Structures are given as structure tokens and as C-alpha cells.
Amino acid sequence: MYNSKIIGLGKYVPDNIVKNEDLSAFMETNNEWIVERTGIEERRWIDPKTGDTTAVMGAKASRIAIERAGLTVNDIDFIVFATLSPDMYFPGCGVQVQEMLGMPTIGALDVRNQCSGFIYGLSVADQFIKTGMYKNILVIGAENHSGGLDKTTRGRNVSVIFGDGAGAAVLSRTDDNSKGILSTHLHSEGQHAKELVLEGPSTQRWVPEILEANDPNDESYYPYMNGQFVFKHAITRFSEVIMEGLAANNMTKEDINLLVPHQANLRISQFIQKKFKLEDDQVYNNIMRYGNTTAASIIIALTEAWEEGKVKEGDNIVLAAFGSGFTWASAVIKW
Ligand SMILES: CC(C)(COP(=O)(O)OP(=O)(O)OC[C@H]1O[C@@H](n2cnc3c(N)ncnc32)[C@H](O)[C@@H]1OP(=O)(O)O)[C@@H](O)C(=O)NCCC(=O)NCCS
């Protein structure tokens, strides 16, 4: 049986830094509230003049990942693109990346699993490689949140949290079974779909209906989040799915070299760190600089951790995510 291994990582974030203080110019909020509740100090929001979009940022991160993998675009067999903020309702961003990078007419799959999207995408790619169908797969997570947030006081409990950016990984076939993706575990619980949701426009609430209602208080086309409800579920599910991944590999928390959690809230990461009795250098956090970048968050964090030399050969790396759906997931990797 084949095995799969990450051989290239890349990230791209917009240059435009929006500090907590900057948000006070257009909504009632303050640095203390945001830092205390979330740990976020600043985030990147696309400057529309730059031409960056979800797909463009995904393509930029991908170029770096492919180059670091020592491959060219012609070596990639398949694209998996995870995002909740695509450039268009359809088609998805995967085909845009195929075109932007000038790739051959390979398949491109879009994954819609929000904050768990990157791990879901990694899991799909892992299966394709392990069955022998493909050799090199580009897995991308990218978000343009700033294009769709309610940036008034009404939307402040959501809009201060989310940031833009992209990351990409090249997953590749290897015959070495001692290294690579050891396991992925995926979960969902749709009964809580509306606790973290963007409802419209959609086929259940299409544009003419919204226009006809002409309701200035209509918030259905902005993200809604029941923050405390999400928080409580997140800490439980993060722990469960990390334990599940460790158990499947006959590991315990002592075997973790580095945990890269989805960057939802620094308080969630700190809770998990304490629960698993991990040291500060065993949990990678960068939410302070980027906010929550949803499908991009884990892959941006993993890329930065690798760039900083914190991901070493032979390390056990655990990725874990929780988010809208609800969906949650983990991946255990022997680097
Ligand atoms: C969103 C979150 C930070 C909010 O923190 P919280 O402690 O639950 O805060 P609440 O929403 O109860 O709001 C508390 C007060 O702060 C106010 N507030 C909300 N957003 C604010 C902001 N940006 N600035 C200042 N005040 C704000 C509220 O209006 C409320 O005021 P009130 O007490 O006068 O009614 C927190 O619930 C959270 O992180 N949840 C999980 C988020 C998550 O993981 N999401 C992503 C999963 S992918």
C-alpha cells in the first residue's frame, strides 16, 4: 500500500494589516475586549485594489508550496480547495487555481467544511494517494472573510474575529510507511448547523426575495454565530477528536511533539493545551496576528511552524479543527 506525505508548504496573507484599534473607526469595539476574549491583536483584510481574492491567494500560496516540494505545476495530479468564501457561488475556486497556475486539465474538487475544511481536504487527498489513484495532490485552504462581514457594531461579535489568507500543501506518494499521514478522523453534527451559519443568498433565500423584502435589518447574508454555544462545543470536540487520533495510532498525549489547532480563539487553544498538559512550545498559535482564517488557519499555522523550524523530521504533529456544521476533525502526521 502507498503512503502519503506532505512535501511542500506555502502561505500567503494580504499585506493590509487591520489592528484592533483600526476597527473602532467603524464599530463600537476596543482592543481590550478583543484581546481578552479572543487573543487577536490584528488580522489581514484584503485591500480590493490589490486584486487578491480567495482563489488568487490560494494560487499564490500554492506556487510556494509546489516550489518548496521541488515540483512544477505539471507534476500535480489533483487539486482540493477548501473554503467557505469562494469567489463565485459556482464554479468553485479549485478550477480557478487550475487555470491561474496554468496546470493541465487535472481534476479540481472544492470542499465546504468551513473551519475543518483543510483537514477534510487533506483526508480526501490522503485517500486518493493511498489507493494509488494520484501521486501529487495540492491541498489548499483559503478565505476572503473581509468581503462578506457586517463591519458595523451590529456584526462586531463576528467581524472582529475573522481574517483573510491562504495556505497550501503538496501531499505526495511515498513508499516509506514509517512517515506521513498516519490517520485522519472526520465528524459532523448537522443539528447545530444554524449556530454558526450564513443563510443567504441561497436557494432557500434567493436574491429576488431579499430585494423584495428590502429590509434594512435583514442580517441573513452576514455570518451568524452563537459564540458561547460554539465555544462550549469546540472545547469538547477538539479534545475528543485529538484523543481519537492518538488512540488510533497507539499514542498518548506524551507522544505529541506539536499540536497545530485551528485558530478559532486563543482561549480555546489554551484550554486544550492545559487539558493535554502541553508546554507552550508544543502548541502553535498565530491567531494574534491573523484572527480566525477558517479553512486557511491550520495550513497557514503549519506552514509558519515549519518555516520557524518547529516541525522536525520524525516529529508527531497533530492537527485539529472544529467549526460550522458543526464539523470537527483531526490528523496525526509523522513528519
Ligand atoms: C465570540 C466570542 C469571543 C464572544 O465572547 P463572549 O464572552 O461569548 O461574549 P458575548 O457574545 O456574550 O458578548 C459579551 C458582551 O460583549 C459585547 N460584544 C460583542 N462583541 C463585541 C466587540 N467586538 N467589542 C466589544 N463588545 C462586544 C456583547 O454585545 C455583549 O454585551 P452585553 O453584555 O452588554 O450584552 C466567544 O463566544 C467565542 O470565541 N466563541 C467561540 C468562537 C469560535 O470558536 N468560533 C469559530 C469556530 S470556527
Written description of the protein model:
The chain has 335 residues and is an alpha/beta fold. It has 2 domains: 3-177, Peroxisomal Thiolase, Chain A, domain 1 (3-Layer(aba) Sandwich); 181-334, Thiolase/Chalcone synthase (Peroxisomal Thiolase, Chain A, domain 1), CATH 3.40.47. The protein is 32% helix and 23% strand. The chain has 11 helices and 13 strands. A 5-stranded mixed β-sheet has the order 1-7-6-4-5, sandwiched between helices. A 4-stranded mixed β-sheet has the order 8-13-12-11, sandwiched between helices. The mean pLDDT is 97. Coenzyme A binds next to helix 2, helix 6 and helix 8.
In short:
The chain is an alpha/beta fold and 335 residues long.
Query: Structural class of the helices, strands and pairings?
Result: alpha/beta
Calculate the mean pLDDT score and round it.
97
Q: How would you name the CATH homologous superfamily of the largest domain?
A: Thiolase/Chalcone synthase
CATH class of the largest domain: Alpha Beta
Overall outline:
globular
Question: Which architecture of the largest domain does the CATH hierarchy give at level 2?
Answer: 3-Layer(aba) Sandwich
